[in-house]
Amino acid sequence: MARLADYFVLVGYDPGKRGSGDGQGQILQRFPEKDWEDNPFPQGIELFCQPSGWQLFTERNPPTFFVAVLTDINSERHYCACFTFWEAVESAQPQSHPRNGEGEEEEEEPSSPVQPAQLFAPKSLVLVSRLDHAEVFRNSLGLIYTIYVDGLSVSLENVIGNLLTCTIPITGGAQRTISLGAGDRQVIQTPINDSLPVSSCSVALLFRQLGITNVLYLFCAALTEHKILFLSSSYQRLTDACRALLALMFPLKYSFTYVPILPAQLLEVLSTPTPFIIGVHSIFQSETQELLDVVIADLDGGTVNVPECVHISLLPEPLLQQTREALSMVLDPELEVADLAFPPSTISASSLKMQDKEIRAVFLRLFAQLLQGYRWCLHIIRIHPEPVIRFHKAAFLGQRGLTEDDFLTKVLEGMAFAGFVTERGAPYRSIDLFDELVAYEVKRMRAEEGNKQKILRHIKELAEKLYKNENPYPAVTMHKVQKPTEGCHLRLHQKPFPRLDEGTVQWIIDQATAKLQTAPPAVKAEKKCMVPSGPPIAAIMERNGNALANSARRLEVVRNCISYVFENKMLEAKKLFPAVLRAMKGRAARHCLTQELNLHVQQNRAVLDHQQFDFIIRMMNCCLQDCTAMDEHGIAAALLPLVTAFCRKLSPGITQFAYSCVQEHVVWTNIQFWEAMFYCDVQNHIRALYLDNNEENHTDEESTEGPQEAKSALEIASEQLRLWPTMSREKQQELIQKEESTVFSQAIHYANRMSYLLLPLDTSKNRLLRSSGLGDVESVSNSFVTNSIAGSVAESYDTESGFEDAESSDVANYVVRFINRFVDKVCTESGVTNEHLKGLHVMIPDIVQMHIETLDAVHRESKRLPPIQKPKLLRPNLLVGEECVMEGLRVYLMPDGREEAAGGNIGGPPLLPAEGAIFLTTYRIIFKGTPTDPLVGEQVVIRSFPIASLTKEKKINIQAQVDQFIQEGLQLRSCTFQLLKIAFDEEVASDSAEVFRKHLHKLRYPQHVRGTFAFTVGQSPKQAMQPKAKEKNPSLRTLSKNLVKNAKKTIGRQYVTRKKYTPPTWEQRSSQHFPEDNEDEISVSEEMDRSTLTPTTTIKPSDKMTINHLVERACCRDYQRMGLGTLSSSLTRSKNEPFRISTVNRMYAICRSYPGLLIVPQSIQDNTIQRISRCYRQNRFPVVCWRNSRTKAVLLRSGGLHGKGVVGLFKSQNAPTAGPSQTDSTSLEQEKYLQAVINSMPHYADASGRNTLSGFTSAHMSSSGKWGSIRASGRMSSYALNMEIGSRLAGKDLLGAQHNGTPSEASFLRQHRASLYIIGDKSQLKGVKPDPLQHWEVVPIEVFDVRQVKASFKKLMKACVPGCPSNDPSVAYLRSLEESEWLSQIHKILQISVLVVELLDTGSSVLVSLEDGWDITTQVVSLVQLLSDPYYRTLEGFRLLVEKEWLSFGHRFSHRGAQTLAGQSSGFAPIFLQFLDCVHQIHLQFPMEFEFSQYYLKFLSYHYISNRFRTFLLDSDYERIELGLLYEEKGERKSQQVYKSIWDYIDRLNKKAPIFFNYMYAPEDGEVLRPYSNISNLKVWDYYTEETLSEGPSYDWELTQGQPEHVEEADRQDTSAPQTKRKIIWPCYDNRSRVEPDAISKLLEELHNLEMELGQVPERWKDTWDKVKASQRTEARQEGSRTPSSLLMSSSLSHHRRSLGVYLQESGVGSTLNLSLDSDTSSTSTPSSGKQGGRKSTSTLYSQFQMSESENRSYEGSLYKKGAFMKPWKPRWFVLDKTKHQLRYYDSRMDTECKGVIDLAEVESITPGTPTMGAPKTVDEKAFFDLKTTKRVYNFCAQDVQLAQQWIDRIQSCLSDA
User: Fold this and answer.
1) Please, how many CA atoms are within 13 Å of residue 1443, restricted to the half-sphere of its CB?
2) What pLDDT, on the 0 to 100 scale, is given for residue 1383?
3) Is residue 669 classed exposed, middle or buried when 0-12, 13-18 and 19+ CB atoms within 10 A define those classes?
4) How far apart are CA 1776 and CA 1795, in angstroms?
5) Rg of the chain on CA atoms, in Å
6) Under DSSP, is residue 335 helix (H, G, I), strand (E, B) or coil?
7) DSSP string spanning 1373-1416?
8) Opening angle at CA 1662, ends 1658 and 1665, nearest 5
9) Which of 147, 161, 137 is nearest to 498 (CA)?
């Protein structure tokens, strides 16, 4: 029985304590006056009566009632029922009161005679109780108020005395009627089971206020220990909401701060760091704004606000969804039938009280599902005297498959769950609804999942039970409680509440107490029983256990492999081993492994031989490496007894156990793991303890029952607890002692076990574990690094305990402390006596010490074991002159992000990881080895790259093999698009890895260019290592006399032995030779200002020599080819030549980075040049580098202008100048210079029709050439065209929207285009106005700088060769490719180049003047020449182009390639690679225009950074001369083998084999290429992505030759086997072009072999090829041109980009062609993307079906054609060919035979036609047109009017072009 109410308190307003703000309350009276012994009087009641503060009001408010909850120090809850009413304040001077009302009273003047408003103060009646019977309290206090207010004749003292002495049963569902002696009657019902919370309707109300989702958020927040704050303007609602939230959490109990109504004075409680559930009146909402980590629920507004920094973990799916659905079925039953046509009329939600119970039922079910099977994870450690129970969290999560689940993990770690385990863990207690649900109904809930009707039925059943629990009896008796009369609180003259007589009340209480003492105590009969455990988790989880479908097969493999190991069939085991290691990823396989190994352990011991031991260890390690530290699947737990069982004999008396080799796993350092293991073992032993007892008594019975009755520990415990009270004292003591010693012995056992797994094998070094987890070489046990994690463990725990030991402290100490900490924790928890605990602490250091001693012996012996055989290291082939710097280090080559090699998404053998060695030579880093996968073990894997191309090297930690430990590794990235990700084998000491890195760094960044491989080749590598000290920084040296002398000396020295040099004969060049002794050979320009140029006054012979050599340079040969300047043998130079070769820079005095001979306008003197050069960056003034042979326009290049130069150039002539200043004169000279260039152009002064609009456009449109991305419609004015191009590039469209070509501004009406366009950087040309008087025009464009190129290249490398695999390779690759912006840079370069080509082709000269003139300028200028001049598309011409534009004009190869130490910081910038990529893009679009193949471009790309050749070293000709490199190529060659120039090497290779030759080569004369540059037209170069693992990069030709032969011989020997012709070609492994050569190469090869066999001297392949081609031509001529020629006739393989590449989709798009620079509007280069109406364009088919004649299709489509006289209309496929100027037709578009040709030259007119007989009916008559030729009239009909119009336009434009 319990008291209904403990205290009755009267609280009133305290008039004395009115300070500044609010008033205060005071306790006027309290009964009983002295505290109950069992329940002291709670503090702070006066705060809780008026939570928003005590205030006076100007009117009487109606009485209020609410229940506040106070929690005392023992966390007991006290319910304070507060009933508040208002009384008038009696005061003589009401004026003097400060008005503390809330502004409701009016301000009155003090002088007014009106009586001031009366003030009312609150007064509260409070009942304090430990029981929560809110309604009873409301009635009782209401009764007291009624007696007072209505003046009933009942003594208040009596009523209060009766109230305080009323006792009621706590639980058990009794019904009790009470009366307070005022003629009232109340019935109190107590709940049947007090463990279930009572909620009346509060839960349902909470859902009504907040809605399902919000409440679920709050529910999860409360369970995961977040802070929750409720706001409402009603106190009662706050209390209800808090109560509801607690009711939902059942069976967990909330154990943090719980204050449903928080008084204003205590608001700072909200900033407490601990979790809470608090309610606050909403007037304080503003105070709650700054709380950052509190979830705020506004009950009135229905919102829940979760702050940003708070993450609430929600329930795991599918539970969340199921809970939501169930709740909506309960709360909103109409939802289900809302869409029905005839909804049932009866559906309606239950009453509020019932709905409340239904919601709780949903949550009860939810908890039963969340915690199902929890009893199977309880460990009972002690039974007597008190049960001690622990919960194995990891096992529970693991078995439920929810280890990753945030929500459950947090709940299990929370305080509420800890309380749950303490309260419900006990095996013998009374049980409630939840226990039954979790034990018996889980199966049912599983079965009903998804069946809404059944779920609802279950919910209703549970709700019934819950309702019955709260309301055990139907309400028979009615409450009878007097209520006050309506509106009584407004009575004017109400007496104040009387002072009660303490004596009377106290007397009543005393009497009642005396009576209670005499009454017999009511014993609550608890029905205790054994708590049912329910089905084990495994049984429940079966359905969605993530067992793999093929797991049975895998387990079979694991079992077989283990049995092979124990039967000593090692080869069989080895084959299965990789599969076993893969299977270990699955949980089932790991369990299987532990079970299988268990079978092989006899009497706790299994002695193995070395190989078996090794296998078992590797399996264990692999098994453990996927375990988390939690060990949620119990794998580590199962292996723990095994690692102390398996062992091997090292020598007599010394045994090594498995534990010394499996210490590297994080699980052993997790103290929670050890605790769980310990408790599990203790439980087993205690169970055994009691089982033995029982068995002694009932041996005879046991045998009859059979063994299936294995009792669980909990069952035994509950049995014991039932018997406990019946036992004698001695028996009890005996049991306690037995249990205690069981725990103690286990603790000793575990101290041993822990020392086994924590002490490293090699304890001699006091070393902590290094973070990398990589062991030293010494601690290798037969190929295993056996380090322990002891060090790191102990450290981590120390930092917590707050004291740290010195680093050097012994490993042993760490382990001792770790074990001590463990022992302390478990022993205190499991009640081990203090003496025993002290004994343990003494023992532990001894245990550790003993173990260290045994380990020393083991370690010593294990070092003597021979290492396990590893594959022998394969030596790589080296080039001549390449030498090893470092012998091979054994490493594993790990797979990176490229999938193919690892077997990846395309299948194929896993070539990686491979086991081998890494070699460092003077030239390359080479990995050579064999795949670890035994299925491809006989293949060889080679991956290498030149050291010079290394861009990034970083240390990484990787796992080399599945079962191995983490190892040190390196990731080396190269700009040849290669990545070596290597893990050092454990035999490689970490210092040798360091040495490797140091050497690598030294070789990568030599002090001086002389240290690079191209120079050191052939020397011994030692010299490469110690660079000479004197060369500090060659690039900073200034040009001084001695340097020139040095240069001359060198030059002189080298040419002593030279024979007379005969330059190659060129068609363009006169055949004269230049003998060296001819003094007058080069006319030195007269105006040369000697003093500024050379230190010597006369030209010495050596200078002349320099000039000689300059003449032989590539540029000079090229100038002569173009007729830009000739070196005649007399001083008289033909003055009509517009340009001359100037020797002004022959000593490199004017511009260090230009070649010695330059082309400048004839009229410009050399001394002018020097002044002009100062205006340009790096002195790179404009020089001519190419001339268009047709239009005579020239291409110039220069550096960007310095700021003042620009301004001067464009503004000086208008500004009035005070005098000729320096800048002025230079800008005038500059102008003069540009004018001279313009004057050189033949049509400059010529005012013929060319300059008019019409003349220009027709010339423009007819200029022969292939069109790419710049297209202009024929109607656009030329000027507008060029302006548009410039402005498009500059990123702004000046033309506005006029597409009819009329310029939008008057300034565009200049009638001619500029003669010279200067392409400059937009940022430099700010503020430059075009000047109508000048003949040049500036085109400002935006270009990217080198920084962007570098960044883009880095991203490109990461995209093409990712370091590690991404989750979704397809998306990731394309996305990262796009993000790299590499293709958009290529697009930009091509776009600018095509623009320049366009301008040159229309007769304007162009000066490219970007950045310093050596990066983008070079790219653009080279591409322009390549596109405009077919000569540069030959092998010879391309070489010349690179030598001229890149080498002579000073592209800084060394600097951009970061070839020396100086360039290390700047990093690698692939400017030349970008150019080659552009060439590759053009090559793809015009495969017939290039003599060289794609392989040639890749070869250059690889070797320009490989430093194998000297060609691409150094930054300019000047530097090359300085080192004496430039002319050495022509000098004597000491050794034939070492080729120093890449060009010689290519020539030599080209003679041997056709690898650089393009068989499709069939150039058209004078062809200008205009490639598309849209990103959609660009392809990622396969150079970036392909690799050949069988031989490494194929660009070092000598290394890759001669391998296949051996293979074939090997095949031939084995004649017995059936010979097969099949070849398997693996991607990324085989060199496809060699294994499967193309037909022509194959034929040439066979010819060569036949000639060899016949003993002839084989012909060169080129001669053979030329002969074949010649014979083809003659054959073709004889047979006539109609037959298709054979495969080799390359002109037949004409490419579909021969002609104006505008492919229109065949659909009625309309005939206006929108031709713009960005060709993304109407004409796409993917012709198949026509609209749905149109057909695919045939251009896609060309590549497959080639026509007999060279096909050029400018436009094509289907037309009806009327046959000749009297023949019907038939649809035919027409092709309009501009190039051949004909209209051909075919039967269908697939047809290859042409049915007829109409020559356009004969066409006289095209006129709209009329339909004739037999014409297609459905066609509009406007779609007919006639074509009149000199011979006949053709009638045509198109599908619709637009198409007809388009055909007419097309044919017209062809005619006008002609």
Assistant:
1) 23
2) 93
3) buried
4) 14
5) 49
6) helix
7) HHHHHHHHTHHHHHHHHHHHHHHHHHHHHTT-EEEEE-TTSSSH
8) 95
9) 147
b/e 1411-1442 (16+ beta carbons within 10 angstroms → b): bbbbbbbbbbbbbbbbbbbbbbbbbebbbbbb
Element (H, E) at 1148: none
Top-confidence residue, 124 or 543: 124
Q: Name the helix (H) or strand (E) containing 1116.
A: helix 1114-1122
Higher pLDDT, 1540 or 217: 217
**Do residues 1265 and 1565 touch, judged by C-beta distance below 8 A?**
no
Query: What H or E segment, with its residue span, contains residue 1798?
Result: strand 1796-1799
Structure tokens at 585: 């990823």
DSSP type of residue 1738: T
Q: How many CB atoms lie within 10 A of CB 1059?
A: 7
Q: How far is CA 65 from the centre of its chain?
A: 59
Are 1444 and 1438 in contact, with CB atoms under 8 Å apart? no
What DSSP designation does 1009 have?
Answer: G
For residues 119 and 100, what is the distance between their CA atoms, to the nearest angstrom?
Answer: 10
CA distance 486 to 144: 16
Distance CA 1142, CA 1195 (A): 17
Complete DSSP assignment for 1489-1546: S-SB-HHHHHHHHHHTTT-SSSTT-SSSHHHHHHTT-TTGGGS--S-SS---SHHHHH
The span from the CA of 89 to the CA of 56, in Å, is: 9
Q: Using CA atoms, how far apart are residues 968 and 986, in angstroms rounded to an integer?
A: 9
Segment 1626-1675, tens digit of pLDDT:
777 877 777 777 888 888 888 888 888 888 777 788 888 888 888 888 88
| Ranges of H-type helices in 265-351 | 319-331, 334-337
Three-state DSSP class for residue 1565: coil
What is the distance, to the nearest Å, from the Cα of residue 1059 to the centroid of all Cα atoms in its chain? Answer: 63
Length of the chain measured in residues: 1858
pLDDT, tens digit, for every residue of 1122-1149?
887 765 533 445 556 788 888 888 888 8
The highest-confidence range among 317-321, 459-463, 730-734, 1352-1356, by mean pLDDT, is: 1352-1356
Q: Omega before 32 cis (within 30°)?
A: yes
pLDDT for 1049 equals 45
Q: Both tokens of residue 900?
A: 């193919």
Mean pLDDT within 1432-1460 = 90
The dihedral through the CA atoms of 959, 961, 964, 969 has a sign that is negative
Pairing between β-strand 2-3 and β-strand 175-178 as defined by DSSP bridges: unpaired
Grade residue 778 by pLDDT with cuts at 50, 70 and 90. very low
Q: The sheet that has 914-921: what strands, in order across it?
A: 941-946, 924-931, 914-921, 884-893, 978-984, 966-974, 950-959
**Beta strand residue intervals within 466-601, DSSP E:** 529-530
Strands (E), 998-1040: none
| DSSP symbols for 647-695 | EEEEETTEEEEGGGGS---GGGG-HHHHHHHHHHHHHHHHHHHHHHHHH
**pLDDT (0 to 100) of residue 237:** 92
> Is the peptide bond prior to 318 cis by the omega test (within 30 degrees of 0)?
yes
Question: Which tokens hold the place of 1096?
Answer: 């010597």
pLDDT of residue 867: 63
3-state secondary structure of 427: coil
What secondary structure letter does DSSP report for 43?
Answer: S
Strand 606-608, strand 77-88: pairing: unpaired
* CA–CA gap between residue 903 and residue 914 (Å, rounded): 12
Here the tokens at position 404 are 């990753």
Residue 1051 has pLDDT above 90, yes or no: no
Rounded-to-10 torsion of CA 1543, 1547, 1549, 1555: 90
